[in-house]
From TrEMBL:
K(+) binds at N57, D117, S153. It comes from Martelella mediterranea. This is Bifunctional NAD(P)H-hydrate repair enzyme. AMP binds at K404, G405, A406, D407, T408, G433. Transmembrane segments: none annotated. Belongs to the NnrE/AIBP family. Belongs to the NnrD/CARKD family. The lineage of its organism: Bacteria, Pseudomonadati, Pseudomonadota, Alphaproteobacteria, Hyphomicrobiales. Catalyzes the epimerization of the S- and R-forms of NAD(P)HX, a damaged form of NAD(P)H that is a result of enzymatic or heat-dependent hydration. This is a prerequisite for the S-specific NAD(P)H-hydrate dehydratase to allow the repair of both epimers of NAD(P)HX. Its EC number is 4.2.1.136, 5.1.99.6.
Amino acid sequence: MQLLTPEQMGQADQMAAASGIDSHRLMMKAGEAVSAAVLRRFPAAVRMVVLCGPGNNGGDGYIAAKALFEAGCNVSIYHFGDLANLKGDVAQAFNACPVKPQPLAAYAPKANDVVVDALFGAGLTRSLDPAVQSLILNLRKAGSNVVAVDLPSGISGGTGAALGTAVTASHTITFMRPKPGHFLLPGREHCGTLETFDIGIPQRILTSVAGNTYLNEPSLWKAHLPATSIQSHKFKRGHLTVFSGGHGTTGAARLSATAGLKAGAGLVTLATPSNACTEATAHLTAIMLREINNVRELSHWLEDKRLSAFVLGPGFGIGEKARDYTNLLAGNPVVLDADGITSFAESPDRLFYSLSKHPTTFVLTPHEGEFARLFPDIHSDKSLGKLEKARAAASRSNAVVLYKGADTVITAPDGRAAINANAPPWLATAGSGDVLSGIIGSLLAQEMPPFEAACAGAWLHGAAGQNAGEGLSAEDLPNGLPKYSQIS
Ligand SMILES: NC(=O)C1=CN([C@@H]2O[C@H](COP(=O)(O)OP(=O)(O)OC[C@H]3O[C@@H](n4cnc5c(N)ncnc54)[C@H](OP(=O)(O)O)[C@@H]3O)[C@@H](O)[C@H]2O)[C@@H](O)CC1
Ligand SMILES: Nc1ncnc2c1ncn2[C@@H]1O[C@H](COP(=O)(O)OP(=O)(O)O)[C@@H](O)[C@H]1O
Ligand SMILES: [K+]
């Protein structure tokens, strides 16, 4: 699913009007859909309260209020801004509304109120007025049920950031296409359930304005998923190498390797220093072992051209050895995670220089702390949201960047971006990231391109978390992976 920024949605609106589509008719459909959603969810509501802002979001509110009134509901409207300034479609919606509004300051929220939040949507450009913020706090205190129109007021549709105190809705109804702010935090938490309603803007217009930001769903990468055929054999399904730390620090790499095998790689080898071989052997069966102690031994191992992908970082140790291995692996499909990323904290340019000499084959999987180490200036740039930060990082590093979190974002150097939204909160557990890097390494080994492998990896990791259920530990995740043939 393509996501549209508020600016792109605005462009679509203008193009729709220019092509002869009646903009007031679009507003009618939007407002009536809001009324229907409210009635469906709260059929026994005592009082409906519609909060209307000065722009088209408020216009949707006046239409919804009229429809609710005509359905026999007890409806009150409270408005923000000067009614004398209403223009165009909003003025028309206001004039046709049988319920006359009172100023916002007159509203005292009650627990049983069902509130339609039509204050601000896609046109929010700055932090909310203090009077609006204090009303939002009162709504929260009263515990009123809120249905948000397009976006919860105060949430930026582009970044998901809260511009001041933002409305928290139990349901949000948006139109045509969701926006990044519906899935990025904190926006996602403010939306409640999300409904996308088709008000009739033609697909050709939406496609012509859309960029390359997507919700991370199987349709984005399913065609690239490895398919097992009767003619397959283990070498055709790729050979993944996971580098392990030394004695006492092999757990993270073993988790990663196990996930790699379960995610379909035909062969998985744990490359361990000599002092960890006994420990690793005691824990492994299907996964193979190879002693690799230094760059010379790694170079020798890399002469085997059947090796197809590598995971470097989980539990590996921070330092020169990680940097040397990384440089030697440049140009190969590699997931660089954890210690592999942190090893470049003092000299990120060394990594970027190394990656700049090859086509994109690396996937970097930083959590926020690791992201800040590798891209300190991008991380601290307050003008950028998570999506723009991850895009800037991919462009600088010439790698696919998977910026982890509850709202993981995956970006490619060519500008493509996907937001992942299927990860349950109980994935925040020790070793969960190691499993993710193993899954992505496995998909790379099975010849998935890096952006698709990272997107599929994040989604499969989320699905595995859902299947393994609350209370899982990272060891449970590989067994929760869904079967590829059942993904739709
Ligand atoms: N997309 C579609 O297909 C369709 C979209 N539709 C609907 O249109 C909505 C977008 O409408 P919109 O562009 O008029 O923006 P909206 O959110 O009403 O706010 C703009 C107003 O708020 C003001 N303002 C902004 N920030 C402020 C602040 N912090 N504090 C105070 N004021 C502030 C701003 O004033 P200004 O910045 O100009 O001073 C302006 O007056 C969209 O969310 C959806 O609900 C439907 O009708 C059907 C078709
Ligand atoms: N609150 C959350 N909801 C959903 N997923 C989360 C949440 N917090 C973390 N995750 C996911 O869990 C994984 C944690 O990885 P990481 O931070 O590297 O942990 P570790 O180093 O313990 O393996 C990432 O895939 C991240 O996206
Ligand atoms: K709103």
